[in-house]
Amino acid sequence: MENRTHIEIIAPSPEEAIAEGLQELGLSEEDVQIEILDEGSKGLFGLGSRQSRVKLTVLTPSEVDKPSISPESLQELVALEDETQTVELGPTSDTVTSRDKTMTDGDDFSTSPLGTEAVDIATQTVQELLERMSIKAEVNASFGFGQEIRGKTPICVDINGNDLSILIGRQAETLNALQYITGLIVGKELNKSIPIIVDVEGYRKRREKQLRGLARRMADQAVNTGRKQLLEPMPANERRLIHIELRDNPNVITESVGEDPRRKVTIMPVS
């Protein structure tokens, strides 16, 4: 501790001493440990006054606290991204130029020499986000072969641990926000768009099974009653599952109606 870089500043007040020290070091308050050695005294009628003395110790990189993220703030980050189209989280890369020479927007990372790097970046990104959320969990990522999205093989990131329901949220809002932010960060790092699927404790697989079963039951009900069936509001990825499950059913047609976040799927019997 005592071998770390530090300075002592004397000024009329602790605030002035801190400001002067930070200016001299060229750092912010988050980068230093502040210790007030003497708050000073104004004395009586100006007599016996004593200036303040402050010690600023420069923190090492590992000691500097990273900004924390709450599950709720993930959704705020998504809203902010929609408005500003900027991302300030995650790693940055100095090798974008070399990647540009080997990848195009239509390429699939799963068949590229950069595939392993892409998986590693996705893993590290989710680990960092969880760390900032003060959530301990195991993160594993791999390519989801057979789960192509828009012709590209996605990177599937699985999060496992104890009591991770906070990462899912109401109607998977938190999980979807985590997935969205992860995709933005990974895409920025690789300088190419790549589909990302983030799952917690197998939630998405269980939910997919439930939705496919719901789709079949509601389709049968639409056919048996001759009346259209209106499902509950769902995010786009869940509505897509309903459409996919019933697209080969000759007895019904499906369509999405309404506006987000209240957009729903309607299942209608074929006349």
In short:
This protein is α+β, with helices and mostly antiparallel strands. Helix content is about 40%, strand content about 20%.
Question: Can you put this structure into words, describing what you see?
Answer:
- The protein has 271 residues and is an alpha+beta fold.
- 38% of the residues lie in helices and 19% in strands.
- It contains seven helices and nine strands, in the order βαββαααββαβαβαββ.
- It has helices spanning 14-25, 71-84, 96-102, 115-132, 173-190, 203-225, 236-246, and strands spanning 6-11, 32-38, 52-58, 138-143, 155-160, 196-200, 229-230, 252-257, 264-269.
- It has a three-stranded antiparallel sheet, with helices on one face.
- Helix 5 links the parallel strand 5 and strand 6 (196-200).
- 24% of the residues are buried.
- Mean pLDDT is 80; it is low at 82-103.
Describe the SSE topology.
Elements lengths: L5 E6 L2 H12 L6 E7 L13 E7 L12 H14 L11 H7 L12 H18 L5 E6 L11 E6 L12 H18 L5 E5 L2 H23 L3 E2 L5 H11 L5 E6 L6 E6 L2
Parallel strand pairs: 5-6
Antiparallel strand pairs: 1-3, 2-3, 4-5, 7-9, 8-9
Helix pairs in contact: 2-5, 4-5, 6-7
